[in-house]
Amino acid sequence: MRIAVFGTGGAGGYFGARLAESGEEVVFIARGDHLQAIQTSGLRVESLKGDMHIQPTRALADPAQAGIADVVLLGVKTWQVESAARAMRPLLGPESAVLPLQNGVEAPEQLAAILGPEHVLPGLAKIISFIKAPGHLCHSGLEPYLAFAESNGGSSERTEGLRQACTRAGISAEIPQDIQAALWEKFLFVVAMGGVGTAANAPIGILRRLPETRQMLLDAMQEIAAVAAARGISLPDDIVQRTMTFMDGLPEGGTTSLQRDLAEGRPSELEAWNGAVHRLGRAVGVSTPLHAFIYHSRLPTELRARGKVQY
Fold this sequence. Notes:
The relative contact order is 0.11. The chain is globular. It has twelve helices and ten strands. It is of the alpha/beta class.
């Protein structure tokens, strides 16, 4: 299987490296110092599942030089999805599929609007990983997991081929019966934790211990569940309590990328997380006051990081 990793960050780089290690033909699209380091010294991955060093590594800046891919793993940030979709067109043949790995629920529709729904495999990734240094990734938490399916639901020859490739690479992969529900289950978890965490400026250990912030977590999840229901997404009846139980088992110091990016003055995925809950809820007549507050109160910091306001 020919696989292109468009955006060789923590998630895309990890899964691409595992697939390359198992013998799949993988090309990595990257840029800057990260690209130069990969081209010079290969891609190094520290991992709880065993370290890797993919060398030589085929890494390029221009997707037009990569050739047609069977599958494109899209590992860019949420605000880069649309520009990435336009740039990746040279990678796509008639049967090519793009698997978005973003934290959010809107990427599949954004990709379909530009590339056509026939090229999109709605999906999600579960992994804690990041770029430690140029050419050097670190997988520090969670069992690496991918879920994906055809846009109209279910399996196909290409999804099954990808699942088998993941299995050979030691990646846990699944083709859910309801991929939209799977996307929203992850969305409910990460957006509630990230939003409350950035509002309270505290890690999950504090958020779940204090009654006030624990209630905020529950309220944030309830709002997301209400939006999902109004949009016809069938989440389990116990999804909020089940997710709270999962949060109770996380390491005390756990934070999300949203918290870290806002705290360090970098552009974040605020618009695609709490902003999306507020926006999508408003579109179906569901009030989301907690997410609206988080989004609006953190928006000045976000706009400053993007150079749109100064203070």
